[in-house]
Structure formats: C-alpha cells, structure tokens
Design goal:
Layout (H helix, E strand, L loop, with lengths): L2 E5 L2 E3 L5 E8 L8 E6 L5 E7 L5 E3 L7 E6 L4 E6 L8 E7 L10 E5 L2
Parallel strand pairs: 2-10
Antiparallel strand pairs: 1-3, 3-8, 4-5, 4-9, 5-6, 7-8, 9-10
C-alpha cells in the first residue's frame, strides 16, 4: 500500500516560518520526482515546489526565495521549509509524486494571519 502522510501545518503570524514534512510508505520517494501542492480557499490547486529524483529543485515565482523543498532519502521523507510566510500563503498543502506513479497525500492546513 503506497501512502504519503503530510504534517507540520499550523497557524502563524505574517513573517513566521513552518516546516512541512511528508513521510512516504510503500515506496521510496527518492526514486521519483516529488512536489508540494497547495490549494487556497476557493481556488484551484497550485504546485509550488518540485524536486526531481536526481535532487534538482525548482519553485514558482510567488514563493521563490521563501520556500525550500528538500528530501531525506534515508528517512523516506520530503520537506518544505517555508519562511517569511504571508497571508496569501494560507492554504491546504499536500505532497504528491510528480511522474512515474500517482500518489498524493492528505493535506495539512497552513494559516497565516495577524
């Protein structure tokens, strides 16, 4: 049974930081491209950061310089470090594979407000 389990969401004030984690089971996430996707209230999903199986990363312009994706293959875990969070970052965040196999985790809510 392949699964992704995300955690680490919460409520922070603008300018705050959070680190999201996503633990994989049933497969080795290091063998696949992975991504973090967010969905804000009333909006469609938006992929914000990618990491390839070789470790190449990319982020969308709206979070570039603030969000960093990384992966620990030994722990079979994907991370998203989010700094200088802003109210527009409020969303449900989830991790997913990006090619190869189709696996998506459940979301973790990030709320940014003063």
């Amino acid at each position: 049974d392949v699964q992704l389990q995300a955690s680490g969401g919460g409520s922070v004030q603008p300018g705050g930081s959070l680190r999201l984690s996503c633990v994989a089971s049933g497969f080795s996430l290091g063998n696949y491209g992975m991504k973090w996707v967010r969905q804000a209230p009333g909006k469609g999903p938006e992929a914000v950061s990618y990491i390839s199986s070789r470790g190449t990363t990319s982020t969308v312009t709206s979070v570039k310089g603030r969000f960093t994706i990384s992966r620990d293959n030994a722990k079979n875990t994907l991370y998203l470090q989010m700094n200088n969070l802003q109210p527009e970052d409020t969303a449900v965040y989830y991790c997913a594979t990006n090619g190869g196999i189709d696996v998506r985790g459940q979301g973790t809510l990030v709320t940014v407000s003063s």
